[in-house]
Amino acid sequence: MVAQTRHGGQPSPTKKLAFREKLLGKGLSTDALLKKMKALHTELASLDQEHVDVSSLSSVRKELVNTSILLHKDRGVKAYAACCLADILRLYAPDAPYTQAELRDIFQFFFRQLTNGLKGADASYYNEYFHLLESLSTVKSVVLVCDLPTAEELMVEIFRDFFNLVRRDLPKKIEIFMVDILVALIDEAQVLPTEVLESILSQFMENNTRIEQAGYRLAVQVCNGTADKLQRHVCQHFTDIIVANSRDEDFNEIRTAHELIKRLNHSCPGLLHSVIPQLEEELRVEEVTLRLIATQVLGEMFADKGGAELAKKYPATWNVWVLRKNDKAASVRLKFVEATKGLLVNLFEQREVIEEALLSKLLDPDEKVRAAACKVYGQLDYETALHHVSEGQLRAVAERGVDKKQSVRVEALTSLGKLYSLAYPEIENNEPLAIKQFSWIPNTILQMIGVSTEVRTIVEQVVMEYILPLPSSSTPSSSKGGDVDEVAWTDRLLHTMKFLEEKSTNAMLLLTALKQVRPNVYDHFLDTCVQNNGGIIDEDEEKVTHRLDGLIQHISLTFPDPFKAVEDLEAFAKLNEGRLYKLFKTCMDSQTDLKGLIKATNEVQRRVEQQLSPHAATLLTLLRRSSFRILNQSSIPTLIKRVLKGHGHTSDHAKLLLTYVSKHSPAFYKSHMSELTKAIADEKNTPLVETCLHALAGVLHWDKKLIPTDKRTLERITRFSLQSNERIAKFAARILAVSGDASACDSLVELIVDDLAESSPEKLVAHVAVLAQIARFAPEAFEHQSDVIMTFLLKQILMVPTLPDPAQKDDMDVDEEWVADEDVAPTLRAKILVLKVCRYRSLAHASSDKALEISTPVLKMFATLIEHSGSFTGQAGEDPKVMSRMRLQAAVSLLHLSTINIYAQTMIQKFIRLAVTVQDSCYNVRILFLTKLISLLQPRKLPPRYNVIPFLTVHDPESDVKALASSYITGALRKMRPNIRTEHFEIIFIRLLHLLAHHPDFSKSHEELLDISKYIQFYIDLVATSENVSLLFHLALKGKSVRDSESHAYTENLYVIAELAQEMIKSYASSRSWSVQSYPGKIRLPADILRPLPNPEAAKVINKTIYLPEDTIEWLANLLKPKAEKKERKAPAKRKAPAPKANGSAKRSRVKKRRQSDDESEEESEAEDSDADVPQREEEAKASDQDDQEDAEEKLGRGARTRAKARSRRQRTAAVKAEAVKSDD
C-alpha cells in the first residue's frame, strides 16, 4: 500500500534522473558509497517536483530504504541517505512511494540522524542535516507521520527529540524549521497524544524560564501557532489534574498546574480560552486552599503585562476575583492584597477599583492582611507611586503607623520611608508633584514618636535608614575616591526640615542624640562591660555585676520587649568583644567625623550580624540611639555656610540646628573654631554673628582651653557685648564671662552701670541681658557693683507698673493674657531679664555663706508675683499680658531654685501656691510651666514632692496639657527602678492628698468632692498596680492618723480626702480583682506638712468619725456596683469649663510654636537624663480623655475661674458692641 499526502496534484514529468549507479553491492567501499550518495543527493536536490519523471527514481527509491544504507556505520552515508530520502518524498508528493512500515522506518531514521548529528554549524555534515530539516519544514512531508499506525508513538519521539535538540544553541533558522514541523504535526494529528502535550507544557515549568531559553522559546512559538487546536486539550489537562488531586487533598500538583497556567498566560494566552472560566469557578468553591490558589494565580495573571486585556476579555472573572477582597478566609484576602502590587504597576485602567480595595484592606480585621496592604506600597517604584497612587492612599497607610499590631506598624512606616527615599531627589529639585505627594511623610512619621515605645523604635529605624540615612557607597551621597559628600548629607536634613511642623522638628532633634548628657547611660554601659570583662572580674565583682545589671535593666525599659532586650544586652556583655567596644565608642564620640562614623557603623553591623545574629535588632537599635547619625560635627561647616547665605527656610533651619548644637552638644565645634571666629567678623550679617557667638559661648563653656587668642577677635566680642542687640550682647558677654578674664568682666560691668540710666529701651534690654550672664557665669564681677545694679533694676525697671496700652482699649483682644515672643515690648523684656538676674545671682551663690542672705528676698519676691498673679501689689489695672509673663517667669525661677536643696527647704511653705500654677487661667503659662517642670523632673533634679504637680492637670480644658503630664508620668514609671519609683511616685501620694486638702477649690460639699475625686482617680489610673495598691491604701489610711501642720480646718479637709482616697482605691482594686492587703512595711510620713495627733484618745475619735458627706458615701458605694447598674452622672452646670476666653484668649495665641522663647530655652535648658525626653504623645491620653468627656467642663483654680468669668462677661459685651457698630455701618 502506498501512503499519500493530502496536498495538491503532480504535473507531468519532463526530466529523468541521470544517476544510474548501484548503491548496494558486495565489495563497495565506504568511500565509494559516500561518493555515490553525495552525487545522488546533489542531483536529487536539483530536480524540481513539477518537472521530474518519478519512474526514473524507482531504483534509488528502493535502494535508499535498504537496511544496509539506513544502518550503515558511516555518519556521512546516513546523512546523505536522509537527504536523498527527503528529496524522494518531495519529488513524489503528494504520493509517498513507500509502505507505512517503510515510512515509519524513514521518519525514525530522519530524527535519529538529526538527534545524533545536528550539533552546530561547525559539526561535520551540518549542511546535510540543515537540508533535511528544511525539506521536512517546507514540503511538510512530515505530516505523513499522522497517517501511520504508530503515529502517536512517533509524534512523542519527534517532540521529545526536538526539545532536546533545540537546546544545542543552533541557528535561529533551524529553530524556525522545527516550529514549522511541530505545528504541522499538531495541525494534522487526528489525536494529540497526552505525552506530546506534556512535553510541550513541561518547557514552561523549568526553573528560570525565559525567552532566552531555546526550549521555552520553541514551546511558546508552537503553542501560539496551534492555540485553536490546543485550547481544548490544555483545558482538559488542567481539569484532569484538579479532579484527580482535589479528592486526595494533594494540592502540590494543583499548585504546580496553576503555576503552569500563569506561565502560559504570560507567553501563550490564546491557550487559556477555556481555562479562565474554570479558574473563575475555583474562586467560588468552598475549599479554601483551592480558592487561595486560584486567587493568587489570577491576581498574578491580571498583574502581568497582558492583564488589562485579560480583564477586558473576562470581565466576570475580574469582578469575581475582586470580590475575594472580602473572602471569609484571611489567607485568601492576603493573597488578594499581595497581588495588588502588580495591578498598581500594570493595570492602570482599574486603578479606582484597586485603590478602593486596598483602602478597605488597610482596615482589615486580620493583622497579616493589614500588614500586607501596607507592604504593597513599599514595593512600588517611584513613577508608579507618583502617578498611580493617590496621596489619600499614602496617608491611609500612615494611619496604620499607630496600628495596635507591631507587624502592621513596621510595614506601614517602612513603606512610607522607602517611598520618601525614592522621591527625595525629586523633592530636592523642587518638583511640585513629588513635593505634594511625598514631602509630608517625614512630618507624619516623626509625629508618632511619642505614641509608644514600640512605635518610637520603628520611627527611629525608618528615619535613620530611609528619611535621613547615612551616606554610603551605594547612595548618591558618596562621591568618587571613597570621600563622603558631607554637604549633600547635611542639605538632605535641611531640605527635609522644610516640611516639618514644630512637633516633628522637636522629635527629629530628639533623635539626634545631642540632648543626652555625656557620659550618658550608653557610655556607662560600655565602660561597665569593659570592667565586667565577660564575667571574669578582678576586683569589686559584686559592685560591677550589680552596676551592669542595673544599667541593662534601665536601657531595656526603652525597648518594646524589655525581656528580650535584657537577654540581648547580656549576650553583648558576655561576648566581651574589645573591637566592638571600641567601634561603639567611636560612633558615640562627638569628635568622630562623618566618614569615620560610617566606617565604624558598617563594621559594627557586620560584626554584630556575624557574632550576635539573634541579638542584632536590639544592638543595632542601641547603636542608632547612641551615635550621631542625623547631625554630626562634619555638618557644622555646611550649616554655617547656609546661615551665611541666608536663603529662607534653609537658613532658618541651619540656624535652628546650630543653636541646638550650641545648647546641647557644643563639643561639635571643637574642630571648627576658625570658622566660628571668621564668621563673627561679618558684622553686617546679624543672624550669622548671633548664631556663631552662641556657638562660641557654648564651646568655650565646655572647654575654656579653646578661647581665641586673637586680639582683634576678643576686641570684637567686647564690642558686641555693648551693642543694643540683646542676643548678640548676651552671647558676647557669656563668652567673656566663661573665659575667666576677671578684668574684662569688671570693665564690662562698669561700662554698663555707667550707661544704664541713659540707655534707650532696646539698649537697656541688652544691658540687662549682659548683666544676667555676668551674674550667672562671673558672679564676682557682678558683686563689685551689685548694690548699684540691683537698686536700679528693682526700682527703675521691675517695680514700675505696666499699664495696658490705651490704644488697645477698643480691641476685641483687650483681655488677651498672652503675647507672642516676637511681640514682647522692651519694657516687659527688661522686667523678665531682671527676674533672671535675681535667679542667676541666687544660683551662683548657692554654695556660699551668703546664699540665704542673697536668695531670701528673691524667693519672697517670686512668691509675691505668683500670689498676686504677676503683680507686686495685687491691685487691678496692670496689663494682663505683662502679668502672665511675669508670673510664669517667677514660677519657672522657683523651679530652678528648687533644684538647690537649701532653697527648696526654704520654699516648702510656698509649694502649694507654686503647684497650682499648672492650673493658671492662661494656657501658655500652664503648658510652659509644665514643660519646664518635666524637663527638671526627668533628670530628678527636683525633690520628689514636685512629682505631685503633673497630677493637677486632670481638669485642664486643653487635652495636650493633660496628655503631656500623663506621658511624662507613664514614661517615668516605666523607666525608674522600683526603689526610685516608690520614692518619687508612690510615697508622694500622701503629699497629693495634703495638697488637695489645701487646694483653693476644696469644699466638703458633694459636688466639689466629685471634682476633687478626679485628681485621685487620675493618680490611681496612672500609678496604681497590684504590687503597690497596698502601699497606696496604707498611705490613705495614714491620712487619718495625723494632723495638718498649719490648722485644724485643713486637718478636717485632709481626713475627708483620706476617706475619699481609701474608698476609691478599694473600688479600683475590686474592679481589677486585686487584693488590698495590710502593708507590711513602715512608712515615715513627711514632717514638713504633717504632725502627729496629740493623744491616742483623739486618734480613736477620729477613726470612728466619718467625714465624708452622705451623698458622697452613696456615690462611692455605687462605684462598687456592676457598670450596668450605674447611672451616668451629669456634670454640674456650675462646673462648666471656662470659655476659651477664660483660658487665655479668644483667638488663643497658644504659641505651640516655640513653647519657650529662644533665650529662655537656651539659657535654662539644663542637662537631662541620657535617655530622657519630654514626651510628646497626646495619643496615650485619648482613651482616658474620652472616659472623662462628661467631666470636660472642669475648673482651674477658684481665683482663675473668677477672673475667667469676669473676662468672659467683658468679652461678650465687646462682641455685642462690635456687632452694633457693624450693623450701623
TrEMBL record:
Concerning InterPro entries, the annotation shows: ARM-like, ARM-type_fold, Pds5
Compositionally biased spans, kind Basic and acidic residues: 1174-1185
UniProt GO cellular component terms: chromatin; nucleus
Might you name a Gene Ontology BP term for this protein? mitotic sister chromatid cohesion
Q: Where is the composition biased (Basic residues)?
A: 1198-1212
Query: Pfam families per the record?
Result: PDS5
User: Looking at the record, which segments are called Disordered?
Assistant: 1125-1225
Indicate, by first and last residue, each region the UniProt record lists as having compositional bias (Acidic residues).
1159-1172
Q: Which UniProt keywords apply?
A: Cell cycle, Cell division, Mitosis, Nucleus
Spell out the subcellular localization from the entry: Nucleus
Q: In its keyword annotation, does this UniProt entry include Nucleus?
A: yes
Q: What is its main location?
A: nucleus
In Swiss-Prot or TrEMBL terms, this protein is called: Sister chromatid cohesion protein pds5
